[in-house]
Amino acid sequence: MTSRNPQGSAGRVTLEHVALTLGDGPQAFTAVRDVNMTIEAGEFVCILGPSGCGKSTLLAALAGHVATSAGQATLDGKRIDGPHPERGMVFQQHTLLPWRKTLDNVAFGLKMQGIGKRERHRQARALLERVGLGAFADRYPAQLSGGMQQRAEIARAMLIAPRVLLMDEPFGALDAQTRAMMQALLLDVWSERKPTVVFVTHDIDEALFLADRILVMSASPGTVLEDLQVPFARPRERGETRDLVTEPEFIALKRRCLALLRHQPIASPAADHATASVRFNRSVQTAS
Ligand SMILES: Nc1ncnc2c1ncn2[C@@H]1O[C@H](COP(=O)(O)OP(=O)(O)OP(=O)(O)O)[C@@H](O)[C@H]1O
Ligand SMILES: [Mg+2]
């Protein structure tokens, strides 16, 4: 696999007193307020928070899709003021183009960079092999399962070797087994290329398994409530003989996250309230 974002390369993200307001006029809504964080180059940070607290909005600001209404977001000291391939986004649902074969979808970012067909196909095939999709390069997205589509989506994001990988509940729709496989795969690719990763999840176990650090957000309008170091050595084991999730330190940190999430009210707008409660309660139950 090529390594165009080797360890030690840049990717430091900062947010200083960031507020994000969505919509205009009487519909305007402050989704996050006074968010401050520094994420070092190559760090893997997970964001946890109740439904509606502004996690996706925060990622959208880092992607450059939403402008800050106060404060500023920077990458390596440069203000983020629009989308750029140096910041790759992976959503919960794939964004593969239905009319392109998997190989061409994965290679698409390289095409945009002006890289010739032969070379971009060579790189895309190598990465597809890596995510277990070598035999499916010529299929269209609709001919892949959900887990396969998501693997192709991640391969697509990784191939452009972004300095920052923004992931919004990327494994949320996957079954437990595929999810565990994808987490391991993501950690493999991350340890090789060391992009800075900002990963949003509702799943405390997932955050504790993946992250160097977990930022827990308050309910809407969201702000950073707590910044937790995840001290477990890597690679983190999750097997039959030894399983990180049964270690006392893991359980203690999980309890801390649960307590922080439990003591928060759900996002206030009435229309959101019912679904937010259901979702939040479900995520807390599955984590306990
Ligand atoms: N276009 C918009 N105009 C006004 N408010 C919006 C708009 N889009 C989202 N919001 C509000 O912003 C808040 C934050 O939304 P966001 O999607 O960032 O939350 P989230 O933390 O990602 O939630 P979830 O965990 O459910 O995905 C929500 O209360 C939502 O209702
Ligand atoms: Mg969201």
From TrEMBL:
Key word Cell wall biogenesis/degradation present: no
Tree of life domain: Bacteria
Domain ABC transporter, first and last residues per copy: 13-244
Alphabetical UniProt keywords: ATP-binding, Cell inner membrane, Cell membrane, Lipoprotein, Membrane, Nucleotide-binding, Transport
One example GO MF annotation: ATP binding
PANTHER family noted in UniProt: ALIPHATIC SULFONATES IMPORT ATP-BINDING PROTEIN SSUB, TAURINE IMPORT ATP-BINDING PROTEIN-RELATED
UniProt record similarity statement: Belongs to the ABC transporter superfamily.
Protein name as annotated: Sulfonate ABC transporter ATP-binding lipoprotein
Annotated organism of origin: Caballeronia concitans
Phylogenetic classification of the source organism: Bacteria, Pseudomonadati, Pseudomonadota, Betaproteobacteria, Burkholderiales
